[in-house]
Write a structure and sequence with these properties.
By secondary structure, the protein is an alpha+beta fold. It contains two helices and ten strands, in the order H-H-E-E-E-E-E-E-E-E-E-E. It is globular, with a radius of gyration of 18 Å.
Amino acid sequence: MVIILIGILSALGVGLLTRSSSFSPLLATQQLESATLLAQQAALAGNSSNSLTISQTTKDFQFQAGGSSFGISREGASITYRREDQSSYQAIGASGLTIGFDSFGRVNSPVAMMGYQFRISGDSNYQICLSPLGAIYRGGC
């Protein structure tokens, strides 16, 4: 009984010591992956909502895909990107970055068949690759 009580208290204590800002980059990474897949599925289904728009304000990340819009708190994190033909990363502003997909789920806009490398930075850092063929995965391109 005492061991169970100590286990519960230690689990609660760890939650008090970790900051929620350390989860923000991971959550943004997962939301970006999810929104990309949603936009691709819409494109494959012939839906006109076949694009993904990513934007960030001073407080939030915003994702629009497949006719849906959702946002999460930034909590100090940021998203930058670079196209595969560029060497430096660019910040995504409030006006956003829109990536469209064709009926095969491939990237077709703003530049057709162009891959994108995303970097989500904060207390922890993640990289996501969106290949020209539409595959999205964690890591470098």
